[in-house]
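Students often ask why we bother encoding 3D structure as a string. The short answer is that it lets us treat folding as translation between two languages. Here is a chain of 193 residues written in the first language.
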Amino acid sequence: MLPLLIISAYLIGSISMAIIICKMLNLPDPRTQGSNNPGATNVLRIGGKKAAAATLLGDGLKGVIPVAIGHYLGFSAQELMLVALSAFLGHVYPIFFGFKGGKGVATFIGSLLALNYLAGLAFVATWLFVAKVLKISSLSALIATALTPVYFYFLTDQLEATYILIVICIWIFYTHRSNIKRMISGEEDSIKS
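And here it is in the second language, the structure alphabet:
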């Protein structure tokens, strides 16, 4: 049953909400506008808050749904984290969109909330605090991501699952490599208030 759920999580993760929502709202393809990234932050740039919120919710649910199914089926924390990793990889490398997807943060948050809602809320609280202070979305995501394995381990005491979580977190840093370069050069966009 676990292999089937892992495959299903990848396929669910491969549904690009940014592309679908932009098409539904007659907005430009997010892969060709702004940062060229099919994610909620870029949809905010090209389509406004409602389109971005719908994208964020949809991408988050891609993480919530397969992990929640795994919970229902009684899988262990380590197995659930493998399901979360698969959904994340589906978002980043979607089979339906030429393996060119988003950066994975929203799907990761959805998975995390379904895995352990307190760890998920800690991520969100960290992101909000850093975003309020530093006004850079990508930096907020990276700081929250870096702290998440600490939150998760202290809340769950699940070491093997935390190791898999660390892999996802490193991958998020990799998907943000262009943002990191822009931050170093002082060219990264700030959050508009």
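Translate back mentally: The mean pLDDT is 93. Keep this in mind for the problem set.
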